[in-house]
Each structure stands twice: as C-alpha cells, then as structure tokens.
Amino acid sequence: MHDVAALILAAGRGTRMKSPLPKVLVPVAGQPIARRLADTLEAVGVDRLCFVVGHRADEVRAALGPRYDYVLQREQLGMAHAVEMARSTLQGQARHVLVTVGDSPLLRVESVRGLIQRHIGSGAACTFFTATYEPPPAYARVIRDTSGAVRFCIEERDCDPQQAAVRELLTSHYVFDSCALWEHLASVPVHPVTGERYLTDITRSFQRHGLAMEAVPVADAAELTGLNSMEDVAMAEAWLEAHRG
Q1: Residue 207: exposed, middle, or buried by beta-carbon count in 10 A (0-12, 13-18, 19+)?
Q2: How far apart are the first and last CA of the chain?
Q3: Which domains does the chain have, with CATH numbers?
Q4: Global pTM value
Q5: Which of 17, 23, 81, 177 could link 77 by a cystine bridge, Cβ 3.0 to 4.6 Å?
Q6: 83-116 burial string, b = 16+ CB within 10 Å, else e?
C-alpha cells in the first residue's frame, strides 16, 4: 500500500444526527466514527492520512490528535470543493489518493485493500466502490457501455429516466491516480441548481480524455453506509456485532 495518501472528508454539519457532538465524533460501539475509519485506513497501510474539517473543526482536531494532517473547508460547497482544499497539502505527496467520506465507519480493511490493489493493478485513473440497492437511495448512478466498461457516473438529480433506472450506485469511496485527480479536478463544474461541485462529475472529464475507470462492487452494501442519524448508528452497531471476528 505504499505511495497512497488517504483523504477523509469530515467537514459537514451532520444536522440529522441530532447529537451534541460533531457528526464524525459520534461514537459507534464506543469509538468515534472518524477514529474507527482512520484506524481502518492505517491498518490498510496508507502512507499519509489527511482530514478535511469544517464544522467545529477545532473539536475534531483535538479529538483525533496531531498524528494526522488537517485542512479547513470553511464553506461546504461539495465533495470536489472539499478535495480541492487539500490540493496544496497532498499534491506531489503520493502517487495515489484515496478519497472517502468521514461518516463511513463500517469499511473493512480487506475491502479497502482490495480497492487499492485493483486500482494499482489496472492502471486506471479512478477506481471506486459500487453497490446495488433496491429501492435505490439518492446516490449517483454508474453508467456502463455495452461491453460493461464504466463510461461515467451521474448524480441522481441529473439522471434521465433510463439512467435513473440503473441500480448500480456510486458510494463516495474512490482511489485516484494523483496526477489525473489534480489535473482534472478543476474541470468539475459548479452545479447550476445547488451551487456545489460534485466529485462525481470528474468522471465526465476522464471519459472525454479517454481515461479508464474501474468499479469494484461490494456485496454487502451496508459496509459502505454513511451514518446520518442515531438510527443509522444503531444499525452500524448491530452490523459490527454481527460481523465481529
């Protein structure tokens, strides 16, 4: 896993969690969400770990400690904007960049290691986890060509009816070739309705430039779940108990 930096996006307010703590510090089975995720990535063997922080950033830094890098996203303007905030910290520091969201404590070491190995072995510009849901949540769809190769990904709000019917969904866990990431990140547009920049849209730039992308399906979609409420936390704790050992 050498030459891989990990970027954890942990700037959001998490208002649906209704907790006195910042969302990423809410405990799951006795351990803060972000700490559990960081421990997983360190067990995978990433060389460097950086958090993008925003809401109550000082509390998050203090809780997680000085062993990590931190960058500040003052305004939450989408995942692509969050990654952009880390450019000066990570550009040139690793050949590959794993980007993940800070509310996903159920990722397993074996799954993340497999994602990185698939990415490095394929030589793709980008490799990401997907899962199949029924009924689907409001996640981006993975659009493939007739041969099964990934063409691009598109946010649900922008799908036409045929695209909206796709059940393979993108789940915001990526590994990028760092040169491709930093070269194409600036091409991600501001969404005309939401005013945010979605990391999903970098796949359009990769498609236009003929860069390969790989999708890695995960059989148990719960592993990729982002926690948004205390009900989700209870589900996560039950999942961990069921998968103990």
Answers
A1: middle
A2: 23
A3: 4-242 (3.90.550.10)
A4: 0.95
A5: 81
A6: bbbbeebbeeebebbbbbbbbbbbbeeebbeebb
